[in-house]
Amino acid sequence: MENGRLVRLIKPFGSVTGYIVALPDPASATAHIRERAAASEDKVEDVCGVSGTLIRWLNLPLGRFMRVSPRNPPRVVNDLHEKELR
Questions:
Q1: What pLDDT is recorded for position 79?
Q2: How far is CA 20 from the centre of its chain?
Q3: Which of 55, 56, 76, 80 falls 20 to 30 Å from 3 in CA-CA distance?
Q4: What is the mean pLDDT of each run of 10 residues along the chain (86 residues)?
Q5: What is the pTM assigned to this prediction?
Q6: How far, in Å, are 13, 22, 52, 58, 72 from residue 77 at the CA level?
């Protein structure tokens, strides 16, 4: 498995959620979160790379992502869009 990316989603009112994305390219990872988890007014930023070892340990297939937030337990987001899960 290739490396992934840590992507940050910032809501207009300041709420921040992180996503570990199993895509190695920063532009692809941010576009993936923008399409599947963000509202049009949200800001999406690439933060840094994450190792392929972590991606394998989390058992994230290519193109999948996991929400990581201090207030919510981590979970893998599968076929549904994150928007539909709220």
A1: 46
A2: 4
A3: 80
A4: 92 92 97 95 96 92 87 56 51
A5: 0.80
A6: 24, 11, 18, 12, 13
Hey, what's the torsion of the CAs at 26, 28, 29, 33, to 10 degrees? 140
- The span from the CA of 9 to the CA of 56, in Å, is 23
The torsion region of residue 63 among left (phi > 0), alpha (psi -120 to 50) and beta comes to left
Look up residue 16 and give its DSSP letter: E
Rounded distance, CA 9 to CA 60, Å? 19
Question: What whole-number distance in Å separates Cα of residue 83 and Cα of residue 81?
Answer: 5
Count, in order, helices (H) and strands (E) of the chain: 3, 5
Say how far apart CA 64 and CA 11 lie, in whole Å: 21
Whole-angstrom distance, CA of residue 37 vs CA of residue 40: 10
